[in-house]
């Protein structure tokens, strides 16, 4: 059965790995950030990575597929940024996604973005984007989801758009997504790594050669007033805060006490904490994003590592979405095809019996 898909704005491939785990074949991907290329190619050996600027890639040079997945750059929609949205050149890259979707006409698409996209100041842009999806030939469904409900040990809210081609006469039902009956916590995720992390080198250069566990190094340096404006520590029996794309904003390891509020928007580290305060390591962030330990990250600066992991879609979350799409479009349709085949064979047998009589 054809489950060949393409990936746009692929990053290091969290979304791609999730779809692969669900039985899809990512045959072509596009990523323009050269700091990510080695990580992607070494972890997705069966996928061709096109390294060109997506704006310069003709649709005719992209393989035909049954699905398109990807997360266009989200900085322009972020609640922590300027929220310029579609007015920002990065926000306009969403239109490149739509261009390729219009030209390739796959059975489905999935696009992921930050919760800031639903801010009321972007309501007109959001309406226009949905209209463009619909005019491209798709029935569109979208919803804000928290990945913690899909076997990801992290509170992480993201907007998911899923479109089914109008020829299918169906739409994606977010209620059919299977959520986990438990909330995964940090102790179940990174407890075994707690004594093995090492600090990065001076200026946060990679210290990877000294790591006992691959990528298990953490960023060093001070903490900004913005960082100290709220508690950054989750305990062992809680899921993590959102893993962000900036290493300096990585959550604090749960070995330390929660931070103490001393004034509005001002917290301090607890001097009575039995363990020191340090940022989560690259590998710990990867675990929380549900990357397997054999998924290795290649970088020279720790900032690059945190960025590619923080920008990724958690693998388990991607897999949950992919499994539902697969069931909708392939498993059910295959059952119908099998039933029709059985009926056809029975009809043929009956005709042969009549001829024999």
UniProtKB/TrEMBL annotation:
UniProt keyword annotation of ATP-binding present: no
Enzyme nomenclature, EC number: 2.1.1.37
Active site, UniProt feature: 74
InterPro entries to which the protein is assigned, alphabetical: C5-Methyltransferase (IPR050390), C5_MeTfrase (IPR001525), SAM-dependent_MTases_sf (IPR029063)
Pfam families linked: DNA_methylase (PF00145)
Family: Belongs to the class I-like SAM-binding methyltransferase superfamily. C5-methyltransferase family.
Name the UniProt record assigns to this protein: DNA (cytosine-5-)-methyltransferase
Organism field: Hyella patelloides LEGE 07179
Gene for this chain: fnuDIM
